[in-house]
Amino acid sequence: MSASNQLDQIDLELLNLIQRRADLVRGLADSGMTFQAGQENVRLDQLQDSAGPKGAGTPEASESMRQVLRHIASHCRRQIETHRIAILGPKYSYSHLAAIKYFGDAAEFTPVANIPAVFDAVHRGDAESGLVPVENSTDGRVVDTLGMFVRRHMQICGEVLLPIHHNLLASGTREQIREVHSKPQALSQCRGWLMSQLPSATLVEVGSTTAAAESAAGDPTIAAVASLPAGRAYGLNVLNENIEDNPDNVTRFAVLGRHETAPTGNDKTSLLFQIEHQPGALATAMTVFRDAELNLTWIESFPSPGSRSEYLFFVELAGHRADPQVAAAIEKLDSMTRRLEVLGSYPVAVLEE
Ligand SMILES: O=C(O)C(=O)C[C@]1(C(=O)O)C=C[C@@H](O)C=C1
């Protein structure tokens, strides 16, 4: 058989296998089994790790195989249910790219105008899941997201780490640029580059990097800082690639949902709490984690709405809320705080390019 016939043969076998997988998923769903979107990630990752060097190859090959498995899984799921995922839009924002990484590209994405609208869509039930940026390695916390966690009770079911590579995109040439549009976080992640390369351009903050690309498409004097897929979607010229000041620029996204996530053995827990406004209160609260020997991976303070001197704290720690020492620490913390919310326990994300 010729090589091209063999390729046809393999592709046919792959299609048949994918159909068999989809039929199996439908059969399981018919018999009452429930599937939580994105939750197959842990199983797929383990499966791929156990395939060893043959399945892994170079890190890049390994990541693209993971993506292939995720896309097949989301394609099969789509045949049994529509799972809507609210994201900061329009399409091709970094939030959209992170959501594809987590849910696979056959999922149904609902782009909304801003971060509060993602929370609202999940809260109202317009979407089953949402995805929001939480922090960036260069720029720190995303204030809109933390503010919404303070205002709305919302469950975190998972997280995604996405390397962020920004690009200068425009419909004209670099000489025509008068303004550079992007989301404040993206402008901040490229501040050094923009100051040295385009010192006379005015920086304009907009709702998302894709909204910036949209404006750039309609006006050659506007450049956008956005993703390459956004540039392609709006037919923009890529004037410069990788303009982020820190080449290891990574944003962490939280997956919002309405279900609790089962322990996997490598989980973290996010908490939000408010303590009495008195000397030593935070130090006392921290002793709970020290005494339980829990490793804190993140802590942020956030002003309490309506009060200038009171703060809420976001803490993330290694472990699942179902682990006895985590559960005991949460119970103890609850007795010494004014407000305590377990935002969720979920698998720790791995960083892949
Ligand atoms: O505007 C986008 O494309 C987003 O998805 C938002 C966002 C953010 O606010 O952090 C996400 C990743 C990057 O850090 C820059 C922008």
TrEMBL record:
Encoding gene per record: pheA
A GO molecular function held by the record: prephenate dehydratase activity
Cellular component terms per the entry's GO annotation: cytoplasm
Residues annotated as domain Prephenate dehydratase: 84-258
A Pfam family it matches: PDT
Parts forming coiled coils: none
Catalyzed chemical reaction(s): prephenate + H(+) = 3-phenylpyruvate + CO2 + H2O
Keywords: Amino-acid biosynthesis, Aromatic amino acid biosynthesis, Lyase, Phenylalanine biosynthesis
InterPro entries assigned to the protein according to its UniProt record, in alphabetical order: ACT-like_dom_sf, ACT_dom, Chor_mutase/pphenate_deHydtase, Preph_deHydtase
Chain positions covered by the region annotation Disordered: 39-61
Keyword Lyase in annotation: yes
Designated name of the protein: prephenate dehydratase
UniProt-listed GO biological process terms: L-phenylalanine biosynthetic process
Site feature: Essential for prephenate dehydratase activity: T251
Alphabetized CDD domains for the sequence: ACT_CM-PDT, PBP2_PDT_1
NCBIfam families the record matches: PRK11898.1
E.C. code: 4.2.1.51
Superkingdom: Bacteria
Location of the ACT domain: 270-347
Pathways per UniProt: Amino-acid biosynthesis; L-phenylalanine biosynthesis; phenylpyruvate from prephenate: step 1/1
The keyword Ribosomal protein is assigned to this record: no
